[in-house]
């Protein structure tokens, strides 16, 4: 998702810290750092996460009544009344039982009302606890069999958070403009589903009934619209691929449509009438973005659904095959130089970032929010790849290092599993800097390009955890990469290269100081453009060097590390 949400998070943390700075503090320009003088970040008090609540555990845990079934298909069929801000509809949920049982867990948040839940014509009993809806069956459902239930619901959903979850707004001309963006708060804020990350449907139908004068853009391929004869029209969309619950979206407004294509891939764009000319100009960047990502990772993952870019009133979101956009039709991020090093203004941050999620986030998906760096760290790294493809390697190195100023190193990137915990925003910036470091560790670009392309192919349409990625790297490189991943993802601090100079002998001694036992990582040292690769470990080793303490550098723009010269 976009970092806007994290501006809020940052603002909130800073209020707690009694700091007088506002939400934009996260964007201060990076301080100049030379390879020789990279300083350790100032120590910060680690945040103690609050104990998970019962509601968080119900949302976050992959409990027995979730694990006993495998989702196959949803048909969400919902009627939206913009005047009353009211939803009314049903989700047909098809699933396969993985073990014999009489109960499954679904989710629908208050104040939405469960109207009834049917298995065929049989009305099922259910119990609600916070957002969870436990559905009970009169007879045991058998392992291996497929069942479908119809979950009817209605009500006025809660609008919450900056993106609104589901927000009933008006466009600048006063017409209805209704959008969903519910990552974090959860899709069950506006429709009933199995609201977790591990299990996805194989495909999905979305039917949205709205007043005749409005347009709905949802995920998947547009299948057609039907006039219902009562002032409402139903818009039908078909998603041909697995999809996250939070990616499922409504975008209802007075949208104007224009289209293009890239090879066989249909590109569909939606903007408000008054923004149409600006959109036609700015959305042209989608082609270069697609070409760049296809260069590194192969074909756009949702080809049958096409690629859509849709204007919305918030900054943007990676809704699968229906990416939303609210970046003012200007380069940079909300008209600012996002990484502060003069590169961001060459492209539209929201088009590049949110669309990058089609590869990492939507095609390759984390199985628990704890490991959300798989979405955000990778996609932030994809921005760097885009910069490298479009503007060259020097700009890419500048761009990724511009992110250093945003890293807090105050808590590990990977959060607690199974409790609906949201990782710190370091998962974006430190995540990208870590992947840039990993490229330097591999130290062979053709091999690196093949590794990340193969990784993407291996996990496309799958829901994975960090361990899957580490195992992949271990196997493909034939090395134990676990300590490196652990240091960057499961500890707070980055590693420090300690250097001791002995001018009389003309030697330099070096070792890593890190939290992870057995941490070892090669690193380039000496003189820029003529780096020397050393295999540093936790034990002191010594090399000869003609360079003085001041002259002796470390390639800190290629490896995200601290340097401590003694
Ligand atoms: Zn994102």
Overall description:
The protein has 566 residues and is an alpha+beta fold. It has 12 helices and 29 strands. Strands 5-4-8-2-1-11-14-13 form an 8-stranded mixed beta sheet. It has a 5-stranded mixed beta sheet with strand order 16-17-18-20-19, with helices on one face. The chain has a 4-stranded antiparallel beta sheet with strand order 9-10-15-12, with no helix packed on it. Helix 7 (373-391) runs antiparallel to helix 8. The protein is globular, with a radius of gyration of 25 Å. Zinc ion (ZN) binds at residues 1, 318, 353, 357, 376, 379.
Defining key terms:
31% strand, alpha+beta, eight-stranded mixed beta sheet, five-stranded mixed beta sheet, binds zinc ion, single chain, disordered N terminus, globular, 566 residues, 29 strands
Task: Please tell me what the overall shape is.
Answer: globular
- The helix/strand class is alpha+beta
Rg, please? 25 Å
Low-confidence stretches: 3-46
DSSP summary, beta strand count:
29
Order of the strands making up the biggest sheet? 5-4-8-2-1-11-14-13
* Number of helical stretches of at least 4 residues: 12
- Whole-number mean pLDDT: 92
Helix content: 10-25%
N-to-C CA distance = 42 Å
Strand content: 25-35%
Largest sheet: 8 strands, mixed
Bound molecules: zinc ion
Topology:
Blueprint: H1 4-16, H2 54-60, H3 64-67, E1 69-81, E2 86-97, E3 101-107, E4 113-119, E5 122-123, E6 125-129, E7 132-141, E8 146-155, E9 165-170, E10 176-181, E11 203-211, E12 215-216, E13 221-227, E14 232-239, E15 251-253, E16 256-262, E17 265-271, H4 276-282, H5 285-297, E18 307-311, E19 316-317, E20 323-325, H6 349-356, E21 364-366, H7 373-391, H8 393-402, H9 426-442, H10 445-459, E22 462-464, H11 466-477, H12 482-490, E23 496-502, E24 507-513, E25 521-527, E26 530-536, E27 541-544, E28 553-554, E29 562-565
Parallel strand pairs: 1-11, 17-18, 18-20, 21-22, 23-29
Antiparallel strand pairs: 1-2, 2-8, 3-7, 4-5, 4-8, 6-7, 9-10, 10-15, 11-14, 12-15, 13-14, 16-17, 19-20, 23-24, 24-27, 25-26, 25-28
The protein binds zinc ion (ZN).
Zinc ion binds next to helix 7.
């Amino acid at each position: 998702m976009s970092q806007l949400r994290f501006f809020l998070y940052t603002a909130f943390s800073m209020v707690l810290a009694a700091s007088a700075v506002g939400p934009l503090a996260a964007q201060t320009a990076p301080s100049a750092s030379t390879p020789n003088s990279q300083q350790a970040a100032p120590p910060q008090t680690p945040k103690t996460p609050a104990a998970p609540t019962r509601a968080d555990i119900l949302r976050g845990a992959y409990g027995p009544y979730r694990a006993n079934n495998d989702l196959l298909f949803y048909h969400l069929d919902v009627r939206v009344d913009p005047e009353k801000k009211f939803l009314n509809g049903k989700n047909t949920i098809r699933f396969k039982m993985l073990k014999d049982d009489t109960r499954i867990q679904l989710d629908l948040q208050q104040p939405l009302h469960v109207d009834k839940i049917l298995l065929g014509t049989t009305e099922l009993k259910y119990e609600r606890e916070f957002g969870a809806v436990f559905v009970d069956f009169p007879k045991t459902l058998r392992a291996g069999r497929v069942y479908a239930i119809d979950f009817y619901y209605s009500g006025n959903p809660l609008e919450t958070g900056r993106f609104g979850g589901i927000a009933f707004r008006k466009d600048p001309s006063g017409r209805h403009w209704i959008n969903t963006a519910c990552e974090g708060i959860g899709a069950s804020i506006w429709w009933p589903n199995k609201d977790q990350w591990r299990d996805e449907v194989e495909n999905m139908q979305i039917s949205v009934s709205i007043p005749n004068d409005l347009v709905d853009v949802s995920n998947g391929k547009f299948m057609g619209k039907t006039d219902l004869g009562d002032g409402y029209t139903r818009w039908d969309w078909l998603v041909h691929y697995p999809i996250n619950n939070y990616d499922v979206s409504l975008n209802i407004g007075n949208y104007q449509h224009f289209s293009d294509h890239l090879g066989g891939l249909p590109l569909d764009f939606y903007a408000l009438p008054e923004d149409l000319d600006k959109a036609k100009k700015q959305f042209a960047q989608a082609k270069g973005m697609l070409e760049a990502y296809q260069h590194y990772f192969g074909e756009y993952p949702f080809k049958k659904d096409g690629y859509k870019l849709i204007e919305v009133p918030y900054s943007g979101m990676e809704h699968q095959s229906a990416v939303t956009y609210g970046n003012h039709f200007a380069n940079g991020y909300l008209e600012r130089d996002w990484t502060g090093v003069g590169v961001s203004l060459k492209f539209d941050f929201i088009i590049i970032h949110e669309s990058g999620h089609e590869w990492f986030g939507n095609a390759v998906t984390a199985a628990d929010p704890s490991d959300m760096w798989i979405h955000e760290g990778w996609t932030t790294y994809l921005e760097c790849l885009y910069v490298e493809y479009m503007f060259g390697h020097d700009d890419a190195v500048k761009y990724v290092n511009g992110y250093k100023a945003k890293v807090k190193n105050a808590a590990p990137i990977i959060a607690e599993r199974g409790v609906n915990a949201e990782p710190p925003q370091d998962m974006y910036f430190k995540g990208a800097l870590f992947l840039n470091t990993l490229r330097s560790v591999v130290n062979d670009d053709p091999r690196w390009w093949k590794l990340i392309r193969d990784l993407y192919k291996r996990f496309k349409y799958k829901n994975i955890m960090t361990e899957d990625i580490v195992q992949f790297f271990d196997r493909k490189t034939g090395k134990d990469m676990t300590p490196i991943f652990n240091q960057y993802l499961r500890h707070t601090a980055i590693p420090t290269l300690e250097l001791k100079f002995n001018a009389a002998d003309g030697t330099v001694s070096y070792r890593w100081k890190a939290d992870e036992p057995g941490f070892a990582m090669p690193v380039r040292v000496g003189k820029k453009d003529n780096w020397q690769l050393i295999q540093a470990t936790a034990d002191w080793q010594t090399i000869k060097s003609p360079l003085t303490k001041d002259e002796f550098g470390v390639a800190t723009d290629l490896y995200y590390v601290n340097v401590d010269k003694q």
